[in-house]
Amino acid sequence: MPDALNLDAIVADPGTRIVVCCGAGGVGKTTTAAALALRAAERHGRRTVVLTIDPARRLAQALGLVELDNSPRLVSGFDPSAGGELHAMMLDMKRTFDEVVLAHTDPVRAQEIFANPFYQAMSSTFAGTQEYMAMEKLGQLHARGEWDLIVVDTPPSRSALDFLDAPARLSRFLDGRMLRLLMAPARGGRSLFSLATAAVGVFSRAVQKILGAQLLADLSGFVAALDSMFGGFRQRAEETYQVLQNRETAFLVVAAPEPDAIREAGYFAQRLRQERMPLAGLVLNRVHGTAIPELTAAASLAAAHQLESAVGHQGVADVLRVHATVARRADRERLVAGRFADEFPDVATVSVTAQPVDVHDLDGLRLIGENLAV
């Protein structure tokens, strides 16, 4: 049996500065992140911010907010008696990208970048931008030093850990052969567009013919902006990556006792180990059990069969059948969850009992927090 995961000790520890919740979709990851953040603020007096990279609105609804945006918002309704605060925010990758531009260029140059069609496309839809900006935003929050605890709710898919690749992927992008060819003239003071219009070089003429003069001008301006703007981003991303590997960070894999979710949990656990990230444990949500675990499904059905013909005992027989159904489900869930335990016997685990209704407010989050603290 794996050790019990003491999440209360983790979120109460002043040495824990970042908690990252990752896992498949539909397993209660957002609820887990919100419940931990709330408990850290209310029970342990920590100034906490929960950051979601998932564009769904579940976090805002559970915290009683109309919406979330790229800036931390104070959550009202929580108990401040312990001295803590709770803030929440949702990653806006374009706004974060814009903030990077504004922070590392002058206002005039920033407006030129914002107007560039290539920048507009990359900041909104370019593959990998969300992961780059998630790393940037997490780095910003950590560097500000005003939060005791940052809880990160990652996207509901395997891409949830893609932000770990941000430094390497950005390096490959900036060091790519084609990008170097495009950026070299810009660094030398002559744009690729000017070289092309002067009909200098076979490569330049070919690129102009394929892309067109205006598009090439936009591209040249964009790569020049990259050269000046991203010089420090790679370094910041690498610094944030190192923070994630430190003991001040705790990764939680969140799953449900279902085959697909447990399979995904195994993937996340393996990936975190490969990246040498501190895996604190597994949160197993929506677990079913019975009030009388020693009464097996088989014994319950046998007793129901004996009572069904007895006068006045039909109600008891029905209750026993319901118990048998729940017991069978609990047995099946233990078997499925055991696959993860067999593969990762040293990963501590905490189980959260399935709730009769969905969590949609602070009281529901407090109840989940109590379950997580057991």
UniProtKB/TrEMBL annotation:
<protein>
    <submittedName>
        <fullName>ArsA family ATPase</fullName>
    </submittedName>
</protein>
<dbReference type="Pfam" id="PF02374">
    <property type="entry name" value="ArsA_ATPase"/>
</dbReference>
<dbReference type="InterPro" id="IPR016300">
    <property type="entry name" value="ATPase_ArsA/GET3"/>
</dbReference>
<dbReference type="InterPro" id="IPR027417">
    <property type="entry name" value="P-loop_NTPase"/>
</dbReference>
<dbReference type="InterPro" id="IPR025723">
    <property type="entry name" value="ArsA/GET3_ATPase-like"/>
</dbReference>
<feature type="domain" description="ArsA/GET3 Anion-transporting ATPase-like">
    <location>
        <begin position="16"/>
        <end position="287"/>
    </location>
</feature>
